[in-house]
Structures are given as C-alpha cells and as structure tokens.
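hiii, so i know i said id send this last week but things got crazy w the move. better late than never?? heres the sequnce for the chain we talked about at the cafe, plus the structure i predicted for it. fair warning i was half asleep when i ran it
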Amino acid sequence: MEFRRIKAYDLDCCIAEIYDQTEAQTEDVALLRRLLAAVPRPRPAPEGRMPLRILEPFCGNGRILIPLAQDGHTLVGLDRSAPMLASAHAKVEALPEEVRRRVTLRQVDVLSAPWPSGCDVVILGGNCLYELATPEEQAACIRAAAGALRVDGYLYLDNNHMEGELAASWREPGVQHHRFPTGRCADGTLVCGTTETIGYDASRRLVRLRRTATITRPDGAVTRHAWVEQKHPPSTAEMRGWLEGHGFIIEALWGDRAGAPYTDDADRAIFWARRAATPLRR
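okay and structure toks below
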C-alpha cells in the first residue's frame, strides 16, 4: 500500500504558513554553519570565497536552505510539496539577486527522481526520514545521498531519537486534537488538525495514522481533508548501519543540536558522516 501520496504539506498554502509559525528553530542551522566552515574545499573560489555545493532533499519552505545560501553557498532544494516550495520560492524572490542566483528549487519525489551529483554536502535534516513510510525507503535516501556526494563529501543526518520498541506515546488510542497543522493564518484562515493511531507494529517501530485537517476560511467556507500515513521512527543502530553500508565514515554523533554527546537518553541522533572513496554496498 502507498502511504506517501498525501501529506499535510501538500494540501494548501495556508499549511505552509502554519509550518513557518511552528518550525522556527535555528539551532540546527547554527550547527550546520559550524560544520560547513570546517569542510575542506575541493576547488578554489572567486574573490577569496570558498562556497560549498549543498543539496537539501525535503527542503520544504527553505528554513535551512535559505540561511546557508545567504552565507554564500550554492544550494539545490528538492521537495514534492507544491505549497511548501511556493513558500520557499516567495522567500527566495525577496532576497538580493546575488543570493537568488545561488538557489535552485525543484519539485520532485526524492524517492524516484535522480539527485544531483558531485555535491560537497547533503543535508537530511528536520526529521525528514520520518516523512517516509518504511525503513527500506529511508535506507534508499542514504544510498541516494552517497551517490550525490563527491568523494570526501559530507552527509548531515538529523532525526528524533527512538530506540527499542515504538514509544508508548505513538500507540495511544483515540483521536488526538490540536495536532499539526493546527493554527491560524494571518488572513484569519483557521486550520484544525487531528491524528489517530489506527495500527502499529511495536517491535518494528511501524505506526499507521489517520489524519485530518479542517480548513475554515474567513468567509466561512470549510474544507476537510482526511488521509492515512505510515511512519517508521528510525533507530540509531539502523541509521548507523545504513551509513556504514553505503560507505560513510561516521565522524560525529550528537544528541542535540547544540552538539552535546549522544547518549541512550538523548533527544536526537545527529550524524555527521563522510563519504569514503569506495562506497560499500549491502
């Protein structure tokens, strides 16, 4: 069964606006800036600058991509959501021309479309693996990242941390209200989101969710959307295995975006991994 065809991000431009309201953190951007500053540059740059070629699949509204472009790097962003990319395009268009020239946004399905090659860095940030339905799809993204990177290029992989069986909070019965994309837009549009767990496999950390989003416009018009998603919170062991299996050398593993060491109780599992000269294949 196909679970990826509908996501909240695909439904309406108002949801991209609510995403901006709810996902405004900058700690991961600050961490990336520190990491990018230390990446060896494989080629000289004009005017003494040394920009990197960076690919961000699941780029969404440009929360991570745009600040890095403003730093002088060249960015390609991939995403399948037209509303999220429209939001990103609008933000990019408001930037100086010099920055706009460094940003390319493409509407594609990251699991089926080819990724650019020869990149210095690939960013898989913001819990993006949680947008995929199975560990096989998640592993495919790591494989694609290996193919997109130059030798000695780097992958940034950032997800929430869950080990063992599916967390109890993901198994709770009943309809959970006030879930994303709940919020109110500047024009008064109101969005109410619900989530209901309708099935799970605790040992495999697979969960199936019924989700709804009810959009009420200022004129009173109401649109209701309903869809089913499957999610697989990846474990640290799984991510480590995918990375090593596709020829990555893990240089760092952190437990939060401030750079704290990873522990069993960490909130996040953030990998910084370098692509070896001869990637292995499993």
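btw Residues 135-148 form the longest helix (14 residues). thought thatd interest u
miss u guys!!
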